[in-house]
Design the sequence.
């Protein structure tokens, strides 16, 4: 849940008009057997086949990793694949975050209204 919190805080700060270097998007990946899963579910984390996880926060505007946390063991090649996959996922999430903020600004309302049912 830390990844969702990091992303949410970044959006909230930007929506409040706080000057930032850029938005921070965060995602996680997990290693189950030899398969890398993006944003694993709680049941996947609890699987006996779950080997490792990696949480990464990324600022695409600066191409900078702002936070990384690894749990479990993996070889260096798998670790690099997991980091690359997280960065790609964060870039896609970043695009959605920007779109949300732009729509909120164009409509003159908080981005919170865009997420409400």
Sequence:
């Amino acid at each position: 849940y830390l990844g969702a919190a990091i992303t949410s805080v970044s959006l909230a700060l930007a929506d409040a008009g706080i000057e930032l270097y850029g938005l921070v998007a965060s995602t996680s990946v997990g290693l189950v057997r030899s398969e890398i899963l993006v944003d694993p579910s709680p049941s996947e984390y609890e699987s006996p086949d779950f080997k490792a996880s990696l949480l990464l926060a990324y600022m695409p505007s600066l191409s900078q990793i702002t936070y990384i946390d690894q749990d479990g063991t993996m070889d260096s090649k798998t670790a690099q694949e997991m980091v690359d996959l997280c960065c790609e996922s964060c870039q896609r999430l970043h695009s959605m975050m920007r779109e949300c903020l732009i729509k909120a600004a164009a409509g003159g309302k908080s981005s919170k209204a865009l997420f409400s049912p």
Summary: Residues 113-117 have pLDDT under 50 and may be disordered. Residues 76-107 form the longest helix (32 residues). Residues 8 and 25 are 9 Å apart (CA to CA). The radius of gyration is 16 Å.
